[in-house]
């Protein structure tokens, strides 16, 4: 069953490639095959099976992309002269703004995520979750929550709007801790 | 998705990348190499007697031999026996004062002296900073990588339309953007899984410290206990070494599918000593189950990593998922290729930003040279440290030499940008890798201990040099009318 799952994951990606651009239904069949393969592998071999299916699917996709690169036609068209999406700060005001962004995203975001993770585990522990699960919940949630806060912050237009995400996280952490 | 969000995401993506790309590149490159760190260890120390198996009695003898080596030194608090595996068919006995290889009979055959492998592992795990601080910094960079993946997807509105478009032979900037986007998109699940498991491991010390302050009066060992198990109370009164042979036989009888990988003796030679055997379970993502025994080798049960609380199973699974060592060499090779893809994504990302600046007339020649030195100077220095290790033994100062040369290289590139031309640097890297592989193959025991690494490294560097020479020839033909085929303009 494991071999079938791994083959299905690879075949699914090949179908996605064949259906790309022109034959959309084939691509849909391909994605369905990949999902079915991961479900089959999960049922047969748990987390190990999902990891194996993921590796096979990604490796297949990379091979298909590299194959596309090998057959790519030669063209001399120049890339458009786009402006770089961020510039190097030169004025003191710009540097201050960058420093504020760094403080909000790195230490403030980190602490807010840690506090929310701690509040969540306190609430979960209060709700009857065991010691082991509550401990791992804290460790797992911290980077995931920090990632979420960072992603929200880095898609805001300016530093002022980057305050909301860690503030909401800290408030939620406090409420969960208080409820525990 | 509105255009503004795409632009903001691209800005955020570039800002994180510029802040962290050099360190991310160092971590990605060293991580790619150490997927097969056991094979590097063999490669670094060829000629050591190997043994694919070790019997329970030989394991007992090995631990006694390991403890005996430390005569005259402070008493070790732990005694480890690493069991032989396919990747490293050498049992290793380790105390607080160092490790030694042992043969199949449990006799010490050579000191463990894989300084270069340890140096690369240290670069990946904690950037050679003090351990705890370094783990936190690397963990934070893991979150930054995951954030780069998320903002990268948000900044890529044509993610489906371009899924298989890799225009390698277009304008270099278009080709670079395609490499960056295609490899970035298709390795996304791998990169996010690796980044978050790395962050989980790296930032774990902070989480445990917070929990210890809240629940165990600051006692970290008690905070670790719910996941990694409790330790019995110590008793320093002298006692003979524990009966590990009996413990191994008991484990084989009770859990026949378990494959022991580590034996750990806590407080060896005391009445409070106890034994943990870590054993892999086939087709599981967990790094292993921990089985506990007392000094007489009596069974005290399993910690529950294999079938206990879901939190324990989850924690035990993050390590192998990150290291890629859960299904042998094929998955390790796949991890190395995907790690290499992450290196390409990181390198091309910053290069794209630099190219855009240059094309807009904003300068940046010196910055480009510095970035070239990071991208190509790092592998060159990794090869240089191999040579230093070979020439000056395992005590060579690899860490200060690496970081000093990396820093000096950046200064030199900023001062004289032509010194760090990417084309020239990558040729030097390819030649140095080829020379290292060929010379290693010629060493006594070099073929048996890591000859595969040499063959792959030599083949890749030859292919690289061949491809480079072909490109050089083409560009010369294009620029020289005398060499141009008749009839072409």
How many strands appear in the DSSP assignment of chain A?
0
Question: What structural class should be given to the helix and strand makeup of chain A?
Answer: mainly alpha
Arithmetic mean pLDDT of chain B: 92
Element order, helices and strands of chain A? HHHHH
The total domain count of chain A is 2
Largest interface: A-B, 70 and 86 residues
> So how many helices of chain B?
15
Q: What is the strand content of chain A?
A: under 5%
What percent strand of chain B?
A: 5-15%
Residue runs with pLDDT of under 50 for 5 or more positions of chain B: 485-489
Mean pLDDT of chain A: 92
Task: Give the N-terminus to C-terminus distance of chain B in angstroms.
Answer: 46 Å
Widest sheet of chain B: strand order?
4-3-2-1-5-6-7-8
Share of residues in helices of chain B: 55-70%
Based on the structure, what is the oligomeric state of the protein chains? heterodimer
Helix content range of chain A: over 70%
- Counting helices, strands and paired strands, the structural category of chain B is alpha+beta
Largest sheet of chain A: none
- Compressed to H and E, one letter per element, the order of chain B equals HHHEEEEHHHHHHEEEEHHHHHH
Q: Radius of gyration of chain A over alpha carbons?
A: 23 Å
Can you characterise this structure?
The complex is a heterodimer of chains A (180) and B (489). Chain A is mainly α and 180 residues long. Chain A has two domains: 2-70; 92-179. Chain A contains five helices and no strands. Chain A has helices at 2-19, 24-70, 92-126, 131-153, 164-179. Chain A starts with a helix and ends with a helix. Chain B is of the alpha+beta class. Chain B is built from 15 helices and eight strands. An eight-stranded antiparallel β-sheet of chain B has the order 4-3-2-1-5-6-7-8, covered by helices on one side. Chain B has helices at 3-34, 37-44, 56-69, 115-126, 131-154, 172-186, 188-215, 220-228, 244-254, 310-323, 328-359, 365-392, 398-415, 422-442, 451-479; strands at 78-82, 92-95, 98-102, 108-111, 259-266, 274-280, 289-294, 299-302. The radius of gyration of chain B is 26 Å and the shape is globular. In chain B, strand 7 (289-294) and strand 8 form a beta hairpin. Helices cover 60% and strands 9% of the residues of chain B. Chains A and B meet through helix 1, helix 2, helix 3 and helix 4 of A and helix 1, helix 5, helix 6, helix 7 and helix 8 of B.
């Amino acid at each position: 069953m494991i071999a079938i799952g791994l083959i299905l994951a690879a075949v699914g990606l090949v179908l996605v490639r064949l259906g790309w651009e022109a034959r959309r239904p084939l691509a849909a069949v391909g994605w369905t095959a990949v999902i079915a393969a991961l479900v089959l592998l999960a049922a047969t071999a748990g987390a190990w099976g999902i990891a194996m299916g993921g590796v096979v699917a990604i490796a297949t996709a990379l091979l298909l992309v590299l194959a596309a690169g090998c057959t790519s036609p030669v063209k001399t068209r120049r890339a458009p002269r786009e402006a770089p999406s961020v510039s190097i700060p030169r004025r003191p005001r710009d540097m201050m703004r960058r420093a504020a962004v760094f403080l909000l995203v790195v230490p403030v975001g980190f602490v807010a995520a840690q506090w929310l993770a701690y509040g969540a585990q306190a609430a979960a522990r209060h709700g009857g979750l065991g010691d082991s699960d509550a401990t791992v919940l804290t460790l797992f949630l911290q980077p995931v929550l920090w990632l979420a806060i960072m992603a929200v912050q880095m898609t805001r237009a300016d530093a002022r709007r980057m305050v909301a995400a860690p503030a909401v996280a800290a408030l939620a952490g406090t409420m969960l801790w208080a409820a525990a | 998705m509105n255009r503004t969000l795409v632009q903001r995401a691209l800005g955020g993506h570039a800002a994180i990348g510029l802040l962290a790309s050099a360190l991310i590149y160092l971590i990605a490159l060293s991580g790619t190499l150490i997927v097969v760190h056991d094979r590097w260890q063999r490669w670094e120390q060829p000629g050591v007697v190997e043994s694919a198996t070790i019997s329970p009695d030989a394991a007992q003898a090995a631990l006694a031999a390991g403890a005996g080596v430390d005569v005259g030194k402070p008493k070790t608090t732990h005694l480890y026996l690493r069991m032989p595996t396919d990747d490293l068919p050498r049992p290793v006995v380790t105390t607080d004062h160092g490790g030694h290889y042992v043969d199949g009979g449990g006799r010490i055959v050579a000191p463990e002296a894989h300084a270069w492998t340890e140096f690369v592992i240290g670069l990946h795990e904690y950037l050679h900073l003090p351990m705890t601080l370094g783990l936190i910094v690397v963990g934070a960079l893991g979150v930054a990588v995951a954030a780069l993946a998320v903002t990268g997807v948000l900044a890529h509105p044509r993610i489906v339309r371009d899924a298989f478009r890799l225009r390698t032979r277009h304008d270099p900037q278009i080709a670079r953007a395609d490499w960056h986007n295609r490899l970035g998109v298709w390795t996304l699940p791998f990169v996010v899984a690796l980044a978050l498991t790395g962050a989980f491991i790296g930032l774990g010390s902070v989480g445990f410290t917070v929990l210890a302050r809240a629940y165990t009066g600051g006692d970290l060992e008690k905070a670790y206990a719910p996941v990694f198990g409790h330790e019995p109370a110590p008793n320093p009164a002298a006692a003979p070494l524990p009966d590990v042979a009996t413990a191994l036989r008991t484990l084989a009888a009770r859990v026949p599918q378990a494959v022991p990988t580590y034996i750990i003796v806590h407080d060896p030679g005391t009445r409070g000593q106890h034994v943990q055997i870590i054993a892999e379970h086939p087709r599981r993502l967990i790094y292993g189950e921990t089985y506990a025994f007392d000094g007489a080798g009596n069974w005290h049960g399993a910690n529950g990593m294999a079938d206990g609380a879901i939190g324990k199973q989850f924690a035990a699974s993050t390590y192998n998922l990150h290291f890629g060592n859960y299904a042998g060499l094929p998955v390790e090779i796949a991890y190395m290729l995907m790690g290499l893809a992450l290196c390409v994504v990181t390198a091309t990302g910053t290069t794209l930003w630099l190219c855009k600046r240059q094309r807009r007339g904003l300068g940046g020649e010196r910055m480009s040279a510095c970035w070239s030195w990071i991208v190509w100077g790092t592998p060159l220095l990794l090869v240089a440290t191999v040579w230093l290790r070979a020439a000056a033994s395992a005590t060579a100062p690899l860490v200060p030499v690496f970081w000093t040369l990396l820093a000096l290289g950046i200064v030199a590139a900023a001062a004289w940008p032509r010194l760090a031309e990417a084309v020239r640097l990558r040729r030097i890297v390819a030649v140095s890798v080829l020379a290292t592989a060929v010379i290693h193959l010629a060493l006594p025991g070099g073929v048996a201990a890591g000859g595969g690494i040499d063959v792959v490294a030599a083949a890749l560097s030859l292919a690289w040099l061949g491809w480079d020479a072909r490109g050089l020839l083409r560009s010369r033909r294009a620029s020289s009318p005398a060499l141009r085929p008749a009839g072409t303009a």
